[in-house]
Design brief:
It is built from 1 helix and 17 strands. By secondary structure, the protein is of the alpha+beta class. The chain has 2 domains: 117 residues, Glycoprotein, Type 4 Pilin (2-Layer Sandwich), CATH 3.30.700.10; 148 residues, no CATH class. The strands form 5 sheets. An 8-stranded mixed β-sheet has the order 8-7-11-17-4-5-10-9, with no helix packed on it. Strands 1-2-3 form a 3-stranded antiparallel β-sheet, covered by helices on one side. A two-stranded antiparallel ribbon has the order 6-12. The radius of gyration is 27 Å and the shape is elongated.
Length: 283
């Protein structure tokens, strides 16, 4: 005669299964979470590579929906990658949480808002231009005397949008002559204020990538001989040249705003020092 399971035996089996499920559930939840994050990073890499290819072939930065040329500024958000379809993208993926990926053309990253769209603490980012850096310095000879002197203009170009706390200052630079750091007698003298938009406020409007300054008297830097590099001083110089990000919480179709991300009251991302840059005549 066959013997069945007793009630106690069944309860023991159910208890063991419950324990196993309780132990395995957190690991499964972590697995699902990491799988979604891995999928998001994979998608973001596809979008990033498409933007890099666009920027190299079109010879202009991809601005997403901001580049549509409408009379009022459209909002960044749901259709940021439509301009890449066809030539640079075959499809636009949706993130693992069922939302569209987004673009920040100021800080130059693509991102997912993660599980929670109401906070940026869980955003997943992938930068296509990593660090803020000075990429070029051009000179406009206002008085046509072929020398950098009073009232001439210097154009300082960065690889992406930057807020400069206190503006560009003449003491921010090391000056090089024939690849050797020049003595302190070699001077670059700039005016106190930027020529274009000196009153820029990071909390009110999107910033630029190019800053224009007048040259004042006493400048001894020579075109074709000297080159400039931001000083390798994080506290006094580099941390004043700050990356800005798109401020989606306060931007409107008529006013795109940016902000500087901070940690412990210090900018989270700021300029790096690059090789010395030659001053070139502006076309």
């Amino acid at each position: 005669m066959k013997r069945g399971f007793s009630l106690i035996e069944l309860l023991v089996v159910v208890a063991i299964i419950a324990i196993l499920v309780g132990v395995a559930a957190p690991y499964y939840a972590d697995y699902v979470k990491e799988s979604k994050r891995a999928k998001a990073l994979q998608d973001l890499d596809v979008l990033k590579q498409a933007i890099i290819l666009y920027n190299s072939q079109e010879d202009q930065p991809y601005l997403g929906i901001l580049g549509t040329g409408t009379t009022s500024l459209p909002m960044l958000g749901e259709n940021d990658f439509n301009g890449l379809m066809g030539r640079y993208l075959t499809y636009i993926p949706v993130d693992p949480w069922g939302k569209n990926y987004k673009l920040d053309p100021y800080a130059c990253f693509v991102y997912s808002e993660g599980p929670n769209s109401n906070t940026d603490d869980d955003d997943i980012r992938d930068y296509y231009v990593k660090d803020v850096a000075l990429k070029g310095i051009e000179w406009r000879d206002i008085n046509n005397n072929r020398a950098i002197d009073t009232d001439d203009l210097l154009f300082f170009s960065f690889n992406k949008s930057v807020y400069i706390d206190g503006g560009i200052q003449q003491d921010d630079f090391d000056i090089y002559e024939n690849n050797q750091k020049a003595s302190n007698t070699i001077l670059l003298r700039l005016g106190a204020e930027e020529v274009i938009d000196p009153a820029y406020n990071q909390t009110l409007a999107a910033t630029a990538t190019e800053f224009v300054y007048k040259v004042t008297g006493g400048n001894t830097v020579k075109l074709g001989i000297h080159s400039l590099a931001l000083k390798d001083d994080v506290n006094a110089v580099l941390s004043r040249y700050r990356e800005v990000i798109y401020r989606r919480d306060t931007s409107t179709p008529d006013n795109i705003r940016t902000r500087v991300e901070e940690y412990n009251n210090k900018p989270l991302r700021y300029s790096i020092r690059t090789n010395p840059i030659k001053i070139k005549p502006k076309n």
